[in-house]
Amino acid sequence: MGNTHPGATSPLGMVSACAYSGAYPTGYGRYAKNTEGVPEEMFDRHQASGFTHFQQSGTGAIRKYYNYVRVTPMVQPLDDLGQSWPLEDERAEAGYYAANLDTGVRCEITVGEKVAVHRYTFPDHHSARVVIDLSCGGLAIDLGRTVPLRAQAESMGHGRAQGTVVMEGIPLSVHIEVDSPGWRQMLWYDRRLIPGGTRLDFDSIRHTTLRPFGMLFMGPSRAGQTIEVRMGFSLRGCDQARANLERECGSGEPAFETVRARTRDRWREHLGRIRVDGGTENRRTVMATALYHSLIKPCIADDESPNWPDPGPYAFDICTMWDIYKTQMPLLSAIAPDRYAAILESLIRVCEEEGNFPIGYRMARGADRFFRQASALAHTALADMQALGRPGIDWTWALVHMVDDLRRLYGEDFWEHGVVHPITHTLDLSYAHHCTAGVARALNDHRLAADLERRSRDWVNAFDPGTGLLRDSEFYEGGKWNYSFRLMHDMAGRIRLAGGDAAFSFMLDRFFGYGAAPVKQPGRCPDPAEMAAGYALNRFEGLNNEPDMEAPWAYHYSGRPDRTAEIVNSALTWQFGTGPGGLPGNDDSGGLSAWYVWASLGLFPVAGQNLFLVNAPAFERAAIEVEGGEFVIETSGYRDSPIGVDGIDREPAPQYVQSATLDGRPLHATHLNAADVHQGGRLHLRLGPEPSTWGHGIRPPSLSDSHPKEQR
Asked: What is the DSSP letter of 589?
């Protein structure tokens, strides 16, 4: 189902806003929590009890997540707060969400980077109201509620109010301005008004003592009358929340259209950094949607860290690096390098303050709850940035933290024994040692680089030479087949261990089902026996989880880029679409959508190795706006996918690269140095309907290459 939502967002901005039903996992929608098959319905319709702020995008298996500061337009008494009403006439655009409640209120929301602006159009009513619930948080599923630890709310008069709630250890402050001339404003507690009260303070809140609380604006409305609610957010107190509101909305004037237009322009500018020509209309729609989803997270809130006082970027909703380091981080590096640098600067500061680079980092205090997924993944992004020679990072200081982080948690056993279980952490840590060695070498610390590189060769301890696969172990959301085809830093050695090119390609063929009988797909709600039978196939899981993302490109290293072309073409055609169910799995904060973007462009980044692999693209021509200007991928011999009489894309035959040139010079290899892409240039690919010998002779570089081959 993708687990995305249609709410208003700003590119990599701090704030999102969407209709709130309490459904899993974003707070929007109809469904309960489920990780296999189609989940049960919580509600038989789309509905909302109001509109909340801060939502996840595409994650799964998360319960307590955001949905703070619920705003509810009502023509009912306050006792009805929390009731949900059907949503009608929903409309979503980049930076804008609108719907009608069946109470007769038209609801519109837009957001800026640190603000949200609501506009409600009321029917004729003697007592309309806008209710703001500061106690709201989390989801309406078992154990899904988030309870504030402390809170304060203040009614300041003249349509102004503010408050702070401490959610999961983080103080979230909001400053509110309501454009409602002649309306009264009051605080409320436990659905009871507090006439004349101007402040509420809660020093200690528990699940058993929590009662809803907030502020209310109330008065008569004429049919068609609009009420605007402007909200500035901050993690550093109400004064900064007010300053954020004034900076983006001005002072005391209606701001909805101004904020909406500014965010629309920001989206247009970001989405315009990749342009494609050719392909079907459906494919162009999916491409634009994928690029949009790739740019929602992480949230970057400059000067907003609640955990250290200094100015500078603060990135959260890195949820999780396990999902985004292979695809989305390289995409941000290419088309949003300033924001990419801000994320890395923030991660370094997190490591400095909290002692480690996190695998996942939320707007919450506490231990890294995602450390079981993987180890030491920030090292890949840091190595890529250093290799590109970008400014903005103190690399000597970064290297200190990179080295220290290699010895935390699973890294301690790896340091001592050269292997650690779950076995996938052995791959992570050996790879991170290789990435860190590159940074050390660039800083002329050759002794450290040599030691790190020596330890990076311990990847071999993870594999069973008898099978060519990973050793038996526990695996996080996958099995040893899923993890056995990662693009390691020594793929040449990995292929030798498997028995050579032919044997490795044969293993990949089995993984992807070449020559196998068709598999009967499980039902909408598969039972345990069906799931067990599926896992026992030891097959490619079809992009519905992170471990399989890069496996199609493993063929490049064994001289079979034609197989990559076939598998990627099939995935783009059959696993992505324009309607509900148009994603094959959780979008995972844009990690899956970023996969689609790269695969459609005919490029795949090998994170941590300053490398791109080349494949047949899904479009006739594409242009990426990069630091050095523009990188163009153009083709000859391209054929559009056929379209049926019903307007649906038909299966396109795979297209294979016959030959290639880079800036007019022959390119005989299936890879590019990342600098070739980031500095701009022109890649021309001649395509044909049959596999060719292109790329068979020169393989992408590997650590164990005795004499690294030239790529051109």
From this structure: G
| CATH superfamily assigned to domain 278-688 | GH92 mannosidase domain (3.30.2080.10)
Pick from 465, 462, 454: nearest CA to 480:
462
DSSP secondary-structure letter at 90? E
Q: How many CA atoms lie within 13 A of 317 on its CB side?
A: 26
Q: What are 649's strand-pairing partners?
A: 643
pTM of the predicted model, to two decimals? 0.96
Nearest Cα to Cα of residue 401 among 436, 446, 428, 449:
436
CA 345 to chain centre: 18
Task: Give exposure, 123-140, as e/b (b: 16+ Cβ within 10 Å).
Answer: eebeebbbbbbbbbbbbb
pLDDT tens track for 239-285: 999 999 999 999 878 999 999 999 999 999 999 999 999 998 999 99
Plot region of 269 (φ>0 → left; ψ -120 to 50 → alpha; else → beta): alpha
Helix (H, G, I), strand (E, B) or coil at 362: coil
Q: Residue 520: CB partners within 8 Å, gap ≥ 6?
A: none
Helix (H) or strand (E) holding 171: strand 170-179
Q: Name the nearest CA neighbour of 571 among 532, 510, 616.
A: 616
- Domain 8-269 maps to which CATH number in 2.70.98.10, 3.40.50.1820, 1.10.3810.10, 3.40.1010.10? 2.70.98.10
Query: Which residue ranges does the chain devote to CATH 3.30.2080.10?
Result: 278-688
